[in-house]
Amino acid sequence: MVRTKQRRSGRRIVVLGALLLLAVVLVLWYLLAGRLDLPGPTPTPPGTDETQSQPASCPDVQVVAVPGTWESAIGDDPYNPAANPMSLMLNVTRPLQEQFDPQRADVYTVPYVAQFSNPIAIPPDGQQSYNNSRGAGTAATTEILAQRFAECPLTNYVLTGFSQGAVIVGDIASQIGAGNGPVPADRVLGVALIADGRRDGASGTDIGQPVAGVGAELSLDGLRLPGITMTGARAGGFGSLDDRTIQICAPTDSICDAPPNAFNPSNWATAAPRILEYVNNPIHAQYNTYVVDENGTTATQWITSWATELIEEAPHPAEE
Predict the structure, then answer these.
(1) Among candidates 183, 173, 176, which has minimal Cα distance to 149?
(2) What is the pTM of this model?
(3) Of the candidates 31, 136, 225, 244, which lies 20 to 30 Å from 296 by C-alpha distance?
(4) What is the pLDDT of residues 61-84, one digit of tens each?
(5) Would you call 200 a catalytic residue per the annotation?
(6) What domains appear along the chain, each with residue ranges and CATH number?
(7) Nearest CA to 249 among 189, 299, 295, 302?
(8) What is the dihedral sign for C-alpha 67, 254, 38, 131?
(9) Contacts of residue 45, Cβ cutoff 8 Å, sequence gap at least 6
(10) CA-based nearest residue to 163, from 307, 244, 282
(11) Which DSSP symbol is given to 258?
């Protein structure tokens, strides 16, 4: 009888020890993966109504592009990105650099982590988590915008991003449109997002074929995994930048055209067939050939032309 009790007690200790170890592993897992840490709203930058001129070194227009996942790296050259020669945004930034003198349009590609680790990979895949990458990319983009505005109060901006970069640019545009961003809304000429994971189907202007779904972060709103936080829709959309914001999303792209409310069991029957669409049609990697109008214009060609027109029509601030 005594031995039986001792065995039971020993088993309890082993089970409790295993549970404690599991709890420690889970806590470390979440801590190492990182929680989502994004820059908060900032005071509205002071107006520039009384500013008559700016330094001659300032560009008339600052173009800021943010690449997608695995298309950038910390320390990459923002004026000659080489981290991924196949980066989609190069199909926009390079043509703009070829067309415009840097004094007219400075084209800056934000270098950042640009990774998305698999939270259940065993062994770990060595990638930074989506939360860490997105947070770092947002901070880097906010910083370059704030620095440029502090130095060049009359410079105007064109913002664009793809995939994870579209989420980052869209979030910053939302803050700017609400009066809480790093530059005043009246300095932003336009925003173009390709495959935005927070696309709500109502904010901004859609270019291309009609898309019934929403961004993956809306579809999976509330999902919390180590290093992956789905944040749902942007409160207030793009605010005062709504009419200057472009959304391009190809049908069946699971990043921006996911089933609404995927966690709702009543939607499972209609959502399930879409999984096959995503597997059989990897359109997310094909925006350089995805046609958005009757003239055969691809997504990247359209954005390049759109940005070109904005730059050509932008004012020429007086120089000091």
Answers:
(1) 183
(2) 0.84
(3) 244
(4) 999 999 999 999 999 999 999 999
(5) no
(6) 34-40+55-313 (3.40.50.1820)
(7) 299
(8) negative
(9) 149, 182, 183, 184
(10) 282
(11) B
